[in-house]
Specification:
single chain; alpha+beta; 2 domains; two-stranded antiparallel ribbon; 4 strands; 16% strand
């Protein structure tokens, strides 16, 4: 004689299995979460480029270790004391979106490093991409990619330690 579970028992078993799988996926996502700011091994954000220069000069400009501001657990470098002070007064206005990770990658549900030369300002916000080739894919539907990335970003990064 075969032993079959009653329908209500099956439902409970399936629910328990689903909840367990959900907890495991959440734990895996949390373990894979990245720092809120993309930085190198020395803790420098944006590969040392000046985030304010993208807005003021409309081009990437290498920053200097002489002009540094600490923010969000990273060291940001600037081409001048003026740019450093501008950033310090309003860092979220000048910092790249998605912590300086590739906007295309975040729109796809993962993170990737960036090429500071592959950038674009959209609605007053700085977005970076892994490469100029990837940037071309991202630019095929920028607003949709930004919307998708905004949905994905909270699950991809971990909160800044306090």
């Amino acid at each position: 004689m075969t032993n079959f579970a009653k329908p209500s028992q099956c439902s409970r078993l399936l629910l328990a299995a689903g909840l367990t799988a959900g907890v495991l996926l959440s734990a895996a996502s949390a373990a894979a979460a990245v720092d809120p700011v993309n930085k190198n091994r020395s803790g420098v954000a944006l590969k040392g480029y000046d985030p304010v220069a993208y807005f003021k000069e409309q081009k990437p400009v290498q920053g200097s270790a002489q002009f540094i501001h600490e923010w969000m657990g990273a060291r940001w470098q600037f081409a001048s004391a003026e740019n450093r002070d501008t950033f310090a007064a309003s860092p979220s206005r000048y910092a790249p979106q998605f912590g300086g990770y590739c906007a295309w990658a975040v729109s796809q549900g993962y993170t990737a490093d960036v090429d500071p030369e592959a950038w674009r300002i959209v609605d007053g916000k700085l977005y970076l991409n892994y490469s100029k080739r990837v940037q071309k894919k991202w630019e095929q539907d920028v607003l949709k990619r930004i919307e998708e990335a905004n949905k994905n970003w909270p699950m991809l990064h971990r909160a800044k330690p306090r």
